[in-house]
Amino acid sequence: MESIYRYTSVYYVAVFALILTSVQYTNGALLSKETRKLINRANRNGPYLGLVIPNLFEMNPLLNSSDYTPVDPVIDISGRRFRFGTIGDQPVISVMTGLGMINAGITTQLLLSLFEVEGVIHYGIAGNANPSLNIGDVAIPQYWAHTALWNWQRYGQGTDNELALEANGDYTREIGYLKFANYTSNVTGSDSSYDNLLNNIWYQPEEVFPVDGTPEQREHAFWVPVDPFYYEVAKTLKDLTLERCVNSTTCLSTTPKVYTVQRGTSASIYLDNAAYRSFIYNKFNVSPVDMESAAVALISLQQRVPYIAIRALSDLAGGGSADSNEADTFISLAADNSIIALLAFVKQLSAIKKISSI
Ligand SMILES: *[C@@H]1O[C@H](CO)[C@@H](O)[C@H](O)[C@H]1NC(C)=O
Ligand SMILES: *[C@@H]1O[C@H](CO)[C@@H](O)[C@H](O)[C@H]1NC(C)=O
Ligand SMILES: *[C@@H]1O[C@H](CO)[C@@H](O)[C@H](O)[C@H]1NC(C)=O
Ligand SMILES: *[C@@H]1O[C@H](CO)[C@@H](O)[C@H](O)[C@H]1NC(C)=O
């Protein structure tokens, strides 16, 4: 009996070792020899513009566009697919990130670590917080910030109290805060004593570790500027003709346009709340609100690669626009408009590069 057990356990150890080896092999294969070869070959055709795209519905219309020519093969790395192509004679790498800040950050880091990339262009759809813009418009902000790194303040404390760990330089009261009690509803005008146990959240800058800084020595960044030259190029798109109609019967009530705007914000939060929308508009002068752009901005900042984001507005975050229900109805029109603006931007950029290289 005992010897059978012993035999069995030897067998299990062997199987376990086999599993371990194959797991190690899988993990170690982030860059197999074959993948490294493909990357080296691809990089000989660079430098590329990196097109970082949140979702398939924003990427597929680009891949299908007559202005885009694919170049084989694709390279799959860490669950991402890097696709190669040209827009005019500008080589581009397109990659889909998936939803949210972590996906956007990881994907951008992979792109910039592995490939010869001269600049990053992020595009897609976004919610709108700016009442002077409309659904279907394309917004190209000069600054992006991640607005969900918070210090959530203890109840009973306020603006005059130091935040937890503020003295260490970990947190700051410089950027400002949201006060929950300000959004109490159904209180009568005369009652000014209402309060909220959720108290205040204070916005915080990101810790960043630039490629040319000292490793492990943090710097801080809240408003991340896009590349100033790219921003100037974006201003030339203001008269671009965008799509106005979903089909023969459903059209926007205004003619959509491309706008360069001051600011956009991102967080891994789907914003569909009018009170918060107007808070961040009033506090930060934000136009597009999305879930990825600031992550792409923060990685590009740290890698010192020029960056810009082009976001078409698909809905008034929280509702209430003249065009009825928004996100569902106009999502594909907004995606198309973001691609029209992207294509025009890339063409304009390569035309300027050509002139300046003569
Ligand atoms: C792109 O083209 C393919 C094949 O022609 C089609 O199946 C797909 O639906 C198209 N996608 C978009 C978003 O137009
Ligand atoms: C809260 O509301 C008061 C009164 O309207 C306003 O003065 C204050 O700026 C608001 N505070 C915040 C953090 O939004
Ligand atoms: C709060 O007020 C709004 C608007 O006046 C009303 O529609 C809603 O039913 C009220 N909610 C509660 C919980 O009383
Ligand atoms: C046009 O699009 C709208 C919104 O998606 C839809 O409700 C309507 O049925 C469409 N009309 C036609 C003619 O396809």
Describe this structure in words.
The chain is α/β, with parallel strands linked by helices. The chain has a domain at 33-142 and 222-357: Rossmann fold (3-Layer(aba) Sandwich), CATH 3.40.50. The chain is built from eight helices and 15 strands. The strands form three sheets. It has a five-stranded mixed beta barrel with strand order 5-14-13-6-15, surrounded by five helices. Strand 2 and strand 3 (80-87) form a beta hairpin. Helix 3 (56-64) packs across helix 8 (326-357). It starts with a helix and ends with a helix. Mean pLDDT is 91; it is low at 16-28. Bound molecules: 2-acetamido-2-deoxy-beta-D-glucopyranose (4 copies). One 2-acetamido-2-deoxy-beta-D-glucopyranose (NAG) binds at residues 185-186. Residues 50-347 form the Nucleoside phosphorylase domain. This is Nucleoside phosphorylase.
Q: What are the SSEs and their pairings?
A:
Elements: H1 2-28, H2 33-43, E1 48-53, H3 56-64, E2 68-77, E3 80-87, E4 90-96, H4 101-114, E5 117-128, E6 138-146, E7 150-152, E8 177-179, E9 200-203, E10 206-208, E11 219-221, E12 224-225, H5 228-235, E13 258-266, H6 274-284, E14 286-290, H7 293-303, E15 307-316, H8 326-357
Parallel strand pairs: 1-4, 1-5, 5-15, 6-13, 13-14
Antiparallel strand pairs: 2-3, 3-4, 5-14, 6-12, 6-15, 7-9, 8-9, 10-11
Helix pairs in contact: 3-8, 4-7
Q: Helical amount among residues, as a percent range?
A: 25-40%
**Number of helices, counting only DSSP H or I runs of 4 residues or more:** 8
Bound molecules: 2-acetamido-2-deoxy-beta-D-glucopyranose
Placed side by side, the strands forming the largest sheet appear as: 5-14-13-6-15
CATH class of the domain at 33-142 and 222-357: Alpha Beta
Report on the biggest sheet. 5 strands, mixed, barrel
